[in-house]
User: What shape does this take?
Amino acid sequence: MMLSMEGVHAHYGHIHALRGIDVEVQVGEIVTLIGANGAGKSTLMMSLFGKPQASAGRVVFDGEDITRLTTHEIARRGIALVPEGRRIFPRMTVIENLQMGAAYAAPENYEADIARVFAMFPILEERQSQRAGTLSGGEQQMLAIGRALMSRPKLLLLDEPSLGLAPIYIRKIFQIVKELNRDHGMTILLVEQNANQALRVAHRGYVLQHGEITLAGTGGELLASQEVRAAYLEGGHA
Assistant: This one.
């Protein structure tokens, strides 16, 4: 087991954002979380990093209870987050952003890791001296993923990677997700509003509503679910 969340509750002040979450991610899986705005998807991702810290339950990563660890201690364990909205450093160059991602990685791996990121995203090599804030939205998302990969994570968390992107970049991002898993063995936890695309690439998925898991199954099972189709795939609302 790579990751398990066991009965996790989390609060933002008086708001009870997560209510008894049970989620598992096996080594080598793509697992997706789908749900409407405000369902608690991003809160779940951030709670894995201790912001907010679980108020009840526990988070176990690679056999270790990380529930009470600080964010930087969790990052050192081998989890990398590509946050919603990308959150690159806009005034820094592409190469400087990638160097920030390597902060917790072994220095001797830097050249090989840069080469891997540039092979995956050739546009970043072409624009490595360009300020990140001048990139297109799709290019910034590639940079955010590349920055996360520079830490050599065991588990990659992707929070709404297709949000706000043009269709051509959405297809590219989901192709990257598949390649990372298939060709590099990357274990991925993916949060997405684009349920159709997410469930097609995922081995398993969970549906989150009002801070609770309401459905779970393989990607194919959830795609075929009438409840999921009505709420997320056919223009409906949860």
